[in-house]
Fold these 3 entries.
Entry 1:
Amino acid sequence: MTLVSSLCYSPPLHYSAFSNSTLASNCYAFSISNLRTQIQSSVSTNVCTQKIDTTLLTIAESFYEDELWAAACLRVRSFHEFRPDTFGVQDHTRYLAEREFEALKERVSGKRTGFRRVSCINASLPLSHISTLSDDLCSSCKFSTNGEDRIVVGTLDLNQCLSLPDEIAGMKPEVVGAYITRAYLSNVCVAKELLRNGLGYALIEKSKLVAHDWGITDLYVHVAVDNEAAKKLYTKSGFVYESDEPAWQARFLDRPRRLLLWTESRDYSNFCALLLRYETRQGERGSAITGNHIILDLTRPKSTLHISSTYGPAP
């Protein structure tokens, strides 16, 4: 396992339950080298999504090549769909994965011009938990950590950009040198077999925590105007409309016109304190809960957030 970057480490998120949400996907293409597995093409028009045991789910930044490769493969199978009988489809899919992998490694390691800092954030599950779900997913998106085989089931990039060619740039904050405190999400995707498990929402919440640790105050994402599922997810995650791409630019770049959405990057240690009621017991350190969905364990690092389906008082 090759370490790409040790910068900006933030402890992983371990989730115990999620509300339903539909996945979003969008732009920028990035990735790295050394092919590790043969990527198989898969096309399914009627994908039956499966509920998962979210106590086994981990959401964390990725710094190792084998996990970045798994993320690149997930992006290819999410953003490209080919007929299985298409000539040379496996070779073409492999080429796309290698290209994505090389660019992602370059950006995460800080070698890509125009990017100040980039983090690849992945959601993963143990292979043993979803081994019967999809042979393609389990073979192409697999990596190993601490002696355990895991599958990347969701991924996104958090980008602190010095420049943003061919994209609408955010306007907040309105100060000199604002690019230092502004970041963009990209490549947001979840395995199609595991949609409606809240993975997209959870990835975005983790990205907000990482962004805050970087000193980011304003977070942006680009989304195609006709991508209703993505817009629904980002709205649920607190994003609002800021601007949109001129029609002529979209035609010139031969792509769907995009919207630019904005949200603030909050300090969750303070944000949760406003939303949650506290219960302190004799001889115990504090814990904060709501009556329904969120539990924030104050004994853990501030960027470790647990989502729970527990209702009522703390156990």
Entry 2:
Amino acid sequence: MAKKSIFRFGGSPSNNVEDYAVITKFKFQELAAATENFAQESLLGEGEYGRTFRGCLKSSGQKSSSLDVAIRQVDDETICTIHGYHDPSMFSSIHMRSLLHHPNIVDLIGYSIADKDQLFLVYNFMPLGSLKDYLHDLPRNKKPLDWNTRMKIAAGAAKGIKYLHDKSTPPVILGNIKPSNILLCAEYLPKLSDFLGFKERIPEHDESSHTRYFSRQCHRHAPEFVGDCKLTQQSDIYSFSLVLLELVSGRLAEIEPSLIGWAKHILAGGKEFTTVADPLLEGLYPEQGLYQVLYLAAQCLQRKDVSRPRIGYVAKVLSNLAAEIYDPNAVQINRAGSLAVGNIEKEILIEQWRHVWSLV
């Protein structure tokens, strides 16, 4: 499987097969020029694995053209802990990451290693930022996401996870699913990014320093990861359900009390399930839709990984919800012909949330 060499802005593919010529290896000078020498004005943000800059790569062809990119400067600790500089596994991971192509995954365009052993990863630029910007860091001049957009984002992210779990060979475990790693491009199309830095494929039995490293870095773990550092596809399901809760509630998972503990107190305690809804939605959401998301989240938050649904089921449920466009001016009737969620359904939701696991 070869990477499509659609963009060759500057950069020169390596002649060494071991360096994987299918991905562009940029010169450090090219990235410095693209970011105006990594100017503060180009800084997009600083995360767990380093700083990210916005850049503009100029074409080296006959026709003048440019490409907006995001350039991740991977910090020294991440590289040394996971791979070590110039370790073959690092280049293998970069190469394998460049082969992952899906509408809901950010493309890796290339990389660069500077003279001082600095690693840079070059991605397509996402103009709308991340989901976190719209849920937890919403500026006053931005409108909150409406229900339909939230379901579109949830369904798209699930499709991206499904591709990584079911279509990639070998399967990819993300391990770091959260709103800041779900980027948004035009029309709020979600794209997964920053999954486990740049080493995507982790065997489920892996107990290497890589897994232990991320046990220190992540805060959205499934119980099997907290207890045994066991990272599986079902761990991703658990983490993704936290994103679903954040989408419908607007609350940040890391705040106290924890998002799961807060939701469980309401939903397992028999309080009205609509209490969980984000106040910024201003009541403009379908009760049946909210109910289904909360029920799905509870299924995904079960203590035993075998009790959680597979990503195919999750993606199907969310795709159906995204297809049911909510119109606040229309009468909302569910498939059973009812105007609202009934008492029996509410009891089922309460029972499901009683089995949800959380640290607190």
Entry 3:
Amino acid sequence: MIDGSGLLADDEFWDEDVKRDSPPFLKSVLHGHFPISDFSISINGEAEFRPGIVTLDGHADDWNDIDGFEFSLLPALDPDDDKEYKGGKMTVKALHDGKDLFFLLQVDGDYAYAKGNNNKCPSVALMFPIGDHATYHNMGGCKEGTNSCTSKTCKGHEVDMMHFSIGNAIPGRLYGGNLIDNRDGNGGDRFGHLVDLYAWNPHCRYIDGIGPSGNDSSAQNNWKGAWWHTIFTDHSGFVEEDSPYGSDGQKGTYLFEFSRPLRTMDRLQQDAQFTISGSSKMAVAFWYPVDGNPWHGSGHFSINCDWIPLDISPGSSMLSPGGSGDVGGAIALLFSVVSLCISVFVGYRVARPKGIPFTPVGTTMENL
């Protein structure tokens, strides 16, 4: 939930409040002293240049030819193998079309949905560093508290986030940035709760355009996304009256599909900016109502205990040597040369002066 100031309530997500009765192990995790090297994995994600193949509808069929990475999902605050998410693995895929960046998250899980109750439905979030000093641990890592964190005191610790809670979102429908919320100049989504956020630490996270020093109407929600589950058989389109859309407990896979521009018009240091041929980092979080119990903010699962590198691959205009591209290129070149020759010949014939036959004057006079 979001209070009147735009600050996300602690039970919304990534709640890492340190309780007085927390065990020492948990306190060390919350303070960022946990030895993440023992649990983190080394994987380089890649967003390939693949224009024109993805429709943002929550379906995964158009991603079949895109490579992805499969991750175990461990509790972010206590990443023991015996506490792994039992529903299955998460597969993360990414691509770009030169303008927008796309993500697909596939998570095995029994169907669970409770209309209007986000905490009894699965939820996902993406996080990216913005500032040079932004850490994965403690969501940016600024040491300031709720009453002292500002864009000045926490400069360099900014992280960009997208959070999608599906309790009010219809499967297959598009949510995120919309004319009404963007007109108000913030990163909210009053229809489906696919919101655009930034943070300096878990206690200082805000909807884009809203902050402790006042609001800025230049912000907007740059994300769009949709969700689906493989148990659905009706592909003609759901409406709200079809809720809950399926039967709880059925086995299948949740699909979450998102996009946002590589570059945004952010002037507030609240959006990560991506560059073709450049590298960024990302993190993914997943909440699930295990055994039907509502999830709580700090009860999320994570794909890793540190950032995952993300490379934005360039498009290539080079034809692969020895492949069919060489034959096509040679044929195209031949036709180009022939066309040029024909053009020159025709132009010469048209432009050449035509001869006028000479008639002797004497001959003409004799025939008068």
